[in-house]
Amino acid sequence: MSRRKIIFGAVLLVLVTFLTTSAGFLYLMNAWSSDVISTVRVLRALQVVKARYVEEVPVETLMAGSIKGMVNSLNDPHSIYMDAKMFKEFMIETEGSFGGVGIVIGTKDKLLTVVAPIEGTPGEKAGIKSGDQILKIDGQDTKDLALDEAVSKIRGPEGSKVVLTILRGQELQEYTLTRSNIQIKTVAGRMLENNIGYIRIAMFNENTGNDFIHKLQELEQEGLQSLVLDLRDNPGGLLDESVKVASQFVPKGPVVSVVTRDGHRETHSSHLPAAKYPVAILVNGGSASASEIVAGAAQDTGVGTLIGTKTYGKGSVQTVIRLDEGSAIKLTIAKYLTPKDRAINGVGIEPDIQLELTETQDNKDIQLDKAVEVLKSKM
């Protein structure tokens, strides 16, 4: 055991011993606020469990459980406690690769729901879709499973298998997926007809903004005069990267405003002198968070036409706060507003042109076709 942990344990023991004595408790009752008294209650519970539980339990285990319970009590699926294992996986994911089956999950209507499958991954290849509800993981009911626990159970070593029981509409189906190392290339693009460029963004990680700029410059050199931006099944990611992307076509002014509970407002803006060309943006129910920031900014400023179906509706902002060298809390600290001050959390963004893909269209991408049609009319 490290010297730091020994010192921490000793200090905690002295503090708990004092605060849980009659004298210490009465002192606090008379001197401090109800917040402090509540803290003493937690420490008292820790001392009781540590001293009286039938089996020996490490203090670290009890403290981790206390923190996890505290965060879970917020009833916010986007606020989670991450132990050392989860925190490491989270950091790897934001850097561009992680182990698993390649689906982004969230909680919607209190049910574990697929936000979006990631292109080229086992989940996407198996046919898992946005909106699928995950009822079981390896036979375990997900009803009372916290989001972080579900993520941990779905991930695992490359080559191992996981069974997901999924409800889609009224149809129940089991998917046996083989986990792989998910390498995420977030940006891909090509030229279409009539000098229309097409760029697909799969999610927003640390490389997305720069990769998007490079791809856009490539297409501009090929003669790009208008752009289709495909954000379908894009579950979001880093806010700063979404601002960097939007700033390449949204004219000078606000892209998104972040508002904290005390009313403090931080506005992220584009400095582009003027819109360079018309843009059509493809969205659906799997377009969430950072992708909704881009879509909302384009729609509010009039630079882009949104085509597809209503977006997911995640309009809150999280930050990661490290507790020590291993663990952290991902905490919702603010909501974000579009340039016209629309709050979309739990609501989503309605496209300008409502157009749904169905499985009876002979694999034709009618949403992309509509985007090309719209852009042709503006050129």
From TrEMBL:
The gene is ctpB. GO terms for biological process: proteolysis; signal transduction. PANTHER family: CARBOXY-TERMINAL PROCESSING PROTEASE CTPA, TAIL-SPECIFIC PROTEASE. This is Carboxy-terminal processing protease CtpB. Keywords: Hydrolase, Protease, Serine protease. Its EC number is 3.4.21.102. Coiled coil: none annotated. GO terms for cellular component: outer membrane-bounded periplasmic space. GO terms for molecular function: serine-type endopeptidase activity. Residues 91-155 form the PDZ domain. Belongs to the peptidase S41A family. It comes from Sporomusa termitida. It holds the Pfam family PDZ_6.
